[in-house]
Amino acid sequence: MYKRLILPLLFRFDAETIHHFATTTLKLVLAVPGMSALCRRVYTVDDPRLARTVFGLTFPNPVGLAAGFDKNAELVSELSDLGFGFMEIGTVTPRPQPGNPRPRLFRLKADQGLINRMGFNNKGAGPAAGRLRHFAQNKGNRRVIIGGNIGKNKDTANDRAIADYLACFRDLFDAVDYFAVNVSSPNTPGLRDLQERGPLTQLLSALQTENKTRPVAKPILLKIAPDLTDGQLDDIITIVAETGIAGVIATNTTISRADLATPAPAVEQMGPGGVSGKPVKNRSTEVIRYLHQQSGGAFPIIGVGGINSADDAREKLEAGASLVQLYTGFIYEGPAVAKRINRGLLRKSPALTATV
């Protein structure tokens, strides 16, 4: 029903406007007494074979919601009812910022993809941490792992970026289970320069130094772009080993416009931004496989990019991912997507339980 009736109706309106409408509706519906528990019963696949222990955390299932959908940790309670094993909030920055001018989110319907140039629009790391603490106090029996995706403010120069990431890290430390360091969004000018070996090593080393001052350190993962060369991916492998971070999230959105089914004039009219969804699926899998093989499976990888089905998720897992995330697939497939993927994984991959 979602794809036949609801999605065509939603797609008649501006993408960002519909996002806000849909999330507001979700909050209203699940505020009705009994609806949250009912939703969990409908959408959650509770099977111990789905559980995975990765970088010291036990995930009830391997299907997560990627950063970007709930930038401000305002929907954690509601989204936790939809069957995801984990979710990432953000990207958050130390100070609130409005992001890029609208329109900044576009659908590539023929490609089952999106173009976004949101620009880290968010209300700041501190308020997000407060909302996460409130959720933790009231989550009841919901088992969901929360990741904090952190970035720098647009007006922070790269030579001062470490301070921004540390500020987010400190604000969120007691409110999240792991961190994702975002240096790969194409929508903040100069951000991807931080993926170069020198600046990236300095940034991750600074975060690890701060991490080790805590009684119990939190896993830190690096989110990388799909547009890196093999040489740059080799550098990533070296940096992970040198800094001792927990793993990699592969991948963010791509700046490539290759092989799109959407007519080129329409794509050009949408303007710059990162492409997500099916257009990045193959490259994401290539990056996962390369990192896994070249590192000898030395660190866990969360696979992201073009996951709409159990087959898509299995492709990432077989390439070397320990967990998977989706965002665009959630938009195109609807609220039951995590349930369908988890059921599909159980049907064709009965022995899923793993420790990484």
TrEMBL record:
Protein's pathway: Pyrimidine metabolism; UMP biosynthesis via de novo pathway; orotate from (S)-dihydroorotate (quinone route): step 1/1
Binding site for FMN: 67-71, 91, 149, 182, 223, 251, 277, 306, 327-328
Matches recorded under SUPFAM superfamilies: FMN-linked oxidoreductases
GO CC term, one of those recorded: plasma membrane
UniProt membrane topology term: Peripheral membrane protein
Residues reported in the UniProt entry to bind substrate: 71, 116-120, 182, 187, 252-253
Entry keyword Flavoprotein: yes
CDD domains associated with the record: DHOD_2_like
Record text on subunit structure and interactions: Monomer.
HAMAP family, A to Z: DHO_dh_type2
Protein name: Dihydroorotate dehydrogenase (quinone)
Lineage per the UniProt record: Bacteria, Pseudomonadati, Bacteroidota, Cytophagia, Cytophagales
